[in-house]
Amino acid sequence: MSVNEDVLEHHVHQLDEKVDRVEGQAAAPTGRCKSPGMLSHIWELFERPDPNSKPKNPLTLLKLSPCQAYTFSVAFLGWMVDAIDYFCVSMSTTELADTFGVEPSRITSALTVTLMLRPVGALAFGIIADRYGRRIPLMVNLFLFTMVELASGFAQNLSMFVGLRAVYGILMGGEWGLGNSLAMEALPVESRGIFSGILQEGYAVGNLIAAMLYYAVVPTLGWRALYWISIIPAVVTIALAFFLHETNAWKQARQAQRASAKPYYQIVLNMLKEHWLRCIHAILLMAAMNFLSHGSQDLYPTFLKKQHGFSPKQATIGTVVGNIGAIVGGTFFGYISEYLGRRRTIAICAICGACFVPLWILPSKFSLLLVGAFCMQVFVQGAWGVIPVFLSEISPEGFRATFPGLAYQLGNLISASASQIEATMGEKNPLPELRDGDKVPDYARVQGILIGAIYCCVLILAVVGREAKGKSFALDDRTDAISDEVHKHAAMGSGARDSSAKGSIDSESGKQAALPLASARSSQNIPAV
């Protein structure tokens, strides 16, 4: 369709002015999000929450339609399966090191490689999902990393194992953006917070299942069987994903993509030009959050076994208790973020979590370490419970699979060395006393320093950022308004610029369309196919 772009640009500009004049600074309730980093907005975190905005009954928020529940369940299971496969490595670090004849720090290189390559998958699968749909890419992703997980159990040396985990990292990087966009687009606005926490804790549930599988399988069948058995949940998830339907939000975006005349690369460049500061902030926040989660989880079983001399059974119990805390924290703080706000909730978790670092690493009694692990993961995953909805809401339109997934995984890339730093520094700085004539790595000191510093970074980034709580993902109004104007100006031509713009603005329909169209304008146009 041939359209006079100057006319449409003029009309959109007038609509933007109308919105600013009528609505003033009412952007926040509509979910519009400007770039983060403006220090003038720090004060928002210290304001009292709106007394008229009471937390809703969580049981009411948990009620979904069958289609919404099914879509969310598949997204949750996909992320859970990812976590099971990922934590198979951290659970079996000691056994892998013995099999391949290397130090545990060499095994953690497999974790590092996995994390480093996740942005590749996030970018590739995110672009495909935003342009062509979420369902098929999700099924392909799950199938491929199931094959890689199966092959990992047959690895004959460390190089082969690390190579397989590198491929797995690409596939794992793609899954989170796919599942998160599916879930957040399918959910009611008021239910996003609590389900964001539940979705992210698919990671903790996967960690929990991996720990139980380790305890049940490895002592009798060995570490290889752990990788083979762990593909069973993935096969079930693939079968369920086959019956998924694309979300209405994506279908509407697809229609807008077809109507756009701009090439995709230009849309991406325009988005980066307008939202570059938002992108940088999201990546830095995700780097800090990933340092927090991987630094507090990946090496913890090794810390319990090698520094404290606890049995594999006790290490498994510690992991299970920590993940129970993670599930509780993620769900609760995801829910409460609907009342407190996303950034304030993350900041509270950072402050409270830092207070429990000593209890997490210093006690010699196993029972006290369990309490510390539980409390630590309540706040680590409490902050993480807000992340899926936070990233989805600040995403520019048309990039809801790419933006959150890529920001998340670029943060993973920056934090990829977390477990390796802890393992290497712990081995280079052993405890003064020997155990059975061998040096004992001082993992506790390294973990304490790292996690304490990262909590400070999370707090700062949460304070200086911005959020778009309650942003509408529905494109019906915006798509209709843009489509109407395109058809109108295509028919009337450039000669009708003044009368068309004036008539639209002064009319009742113009008033209704002003805010959605300005919102679409601020997000950059939906990508073209």
TrEMBL record:
Compartments it resides in: Membrane
Keyword set includes Transmembrane: yes
GO terms, molecular function: carboxylic acid transmembrane transporter activity
Membrane spanning stretches: 107-129, 136-155, 223-244, 276-295, 315-336, 368-391, 443-464
GO cellular component: plasma membrane
Ion transport is among the record's keywords: no
Chief location category: membrane
Coiled coil: none
Major facilitator superfamily (MFS) profile domain residues: 71-471
Keywords for the protein's UniProt record, in alphabetical order: Membrane, Transmembrane, Transmembrane helix
Location of region: Disordered: 488-529
Compositional bias (Polar residues): 520-529
Membrane topology classification: Multi-pass membrane protein
InterPro entries: MFS, MFS_dom, MFS_trans_sf, Sugar_transporter_CS
Protein known as: Carboxylic acid transporter
Source organism per UniProt: Coemansia thaxteri
